[in-house]
Amino acid sequence: xxSTTKYMxxxxxxVFLLPGEEIPLRIFEPRYKQLINECNETGDTFGIPYVSNDxxxxxxxxxxxxxxxxxxxxxxxxxxxxxxxxxxLLNLKEKLPDKLYGGGIIEYIDDRFTTTNPELVVxxxxxxxxxxxxxxxxxxxDSVNLMNVAKAIQLDSDEKFAFYSLRNEKQxxxxxxxxxxxxxxxxxxxxxxxxxxxLN
Length: 200
Prior knowledge:
Blueprint: E1 5-10, E2 22-27, H1 30-42, E3 46-52, E4 55-71, E5 77-93, E6 102-107, E7 114-115, H2 118-126, E8 139-140, E9 143-145, H3 146-152, H4 157-165, H5 169-199
Antiparallel strand pairs: 1-6, 2-5, 3-4, 4-5, 5-6, 7-9, 8-9
């Protein structure tokens, strides 16, 4: 395997995360209790291939276990995970030898999508999308990181997967512009409602 590929345990879910995003998960199936307990001991990451309409898709998220939030006497858990990378799924085995869970080979791909598209830059500034206190502004100079914008506007998993699957800067920019225009429209409507209430 080349340096851009990796073999890892897999936990298919209808969840698509971009790097830096965190979510809680409830773990109750024996195979995934085994997986999480092992990751807790070793510090290994695992993959979440994206599942939509009962189909495992070609892209997913590599995640790390942040912590086990709660655990009951049956070994069921609530955990917090954090995405550290996205990947292209090359193959998947439903069950690994001597394990209850599956695994597969993933390929890392270049996700450094940035743009200087003036319309997108203006919308990001106008909507004040500097929501991450650690990251600060989404704009570095005149360029915008497309993944950061996608995270800032809180797309759902289907939307993030659709955006990520485009794999083309121009198409990704157009996707985000449409979403940002929609957010701008909603904000304008909210301001109009506020003004109407304050006039009464």
